[in-house]
Amino acid sequence: MRSFSRRDFLAASAAATGAALLPRFAAAAEPADLFKISLAQWSLHRAFRAKGGDKLDPLKFAEISTKQYGITAIEYVNQFYADKKKDGAYLTDLKKVADDNKVTSVLIMCDGEGNLGNPDEKGRVQAVENHKRWAEWAKFLGCHSIRVNAASDWKKGFAETQKLAADGLRKLAEFTDTLGINTIVENHGGLSSHGEWLAGVMKLVDHKRCGTLPDFGNFNIGKIEGVKETAYDRYKGVDELMPFAKGVSAKSHDFDDKGNETHTDYRKMLEIVLKKHKYSGFVGIEYEGGKLSEADGIKATKKLLETVRAELAKG
Fold it and tell me: Which end of the chain is flanked by fewer CB atoms within 10 Å, N or C?
């Protein structure tokens, strides 16, 4: 048997070290590394608005999410807390429920607080003011963002409404920046559902704290004078919004017998989100269908996201 020289020993050691390090780079990604799943409260909007014994308590949203669905990250909707907006004690209790259940608060979806693209400057400034309390909620709960709408008077046209929305959004983003959180915009009707329009707004705002929340399904524009589309291609739209994305909303309605969503090709969409744009944050379940119950719709969406995530992790 040949004896090992010092040179042989060093060469063997280097080879062994290289072999030990190799799997870290060669192994396929773990599915959970690609993105994390959160639950949008709107998925249970009927249950939170129900009357009598079927009504769910919005205070317990975090507990419901983890105990019933195994989802440990949540996206609140301000509509369910409108009468508690100034109630600090309630907000403290809401955070305690999340903390006690080890649930991450991701964002708050804000509606009904005025148009950030209001053509009237006083109205636009007031809309910014109306959102500030929810930004304070988000900061206290540990959210990274508030989700807002870029609504305007669409009769003002494509370019003018971009400028109006950008003005309101920048003012709000400058405030949320002082809190260390983001102002993010969802494609949510009107020209905000036009990918090119909203991407253009983001470029006009040009603030690190302002971004998008691309939603897989909200691309119905409606009839707007001077705009040829009434609906926008969802894949094109998400692709245009992803460079600014600080969150993603996985809208779902109906499923076929194989568990696939019938309106959105989740594999195609997540290829755009994950592979093309290298996104790795939260993807929020937002079930809005009527054929399945809210509970079953959430479970079906979660299963589909987990299935596609596992497929993509294998490369």
Answer: N
